[in-house]
Amino acid sequence: MKxxxxxxxxxxxxxxxxxxxxxxxxxxxxxLRATINKPIIGTTEITEQMMVAVVFLGxxxxxxxxxxxxxxxxxxxxxxxxxxxxxxxxIFIGLVFVAILCWQTFMTTLTLQRLGITASYIGIPxxxxxxxxxxxxxxxxxxxxxxxxxxxxxxxxx
Length: 158
What we know:
Blueprint: H1 2-36, H2 43-56, H3 59-65, H4 80-115, H5 127-157
Helix pairs in contact: 1-2, 1-3, 1-5, 2-5, 3-5, 4-5
């Protein structure tokens, strides 16, 4: 479990660094555009691709921190045992969906690489960013599996 925590923390830190670099790129583009009327070519496309890393690489860390959105309008009124069972069912369903997303994103990555799809304006390949998306889903899957096991262990102790 500590390995999964470390991986999720590293990918979360990478997401933060990419966000910082994205902010620097945007500020530099605005300053160059405003001062000497020479914007950085392709800033919008580069920022779009960087956003992929920011969003998907942060998923696993967010899961382990318990920061995902959780709506418990009705579940909060149930007894503790029932809430634990509902949580386990929801986490399991989430694991199934994330596994499907991992697989489909990986297959899309291979297709994009085979077809040579690139960003339209600056021509950088799109498949590495899809690979980052697949990595993000994989880390989220591992984090959710770890969280699921921890929930089961806590249920057994009570």
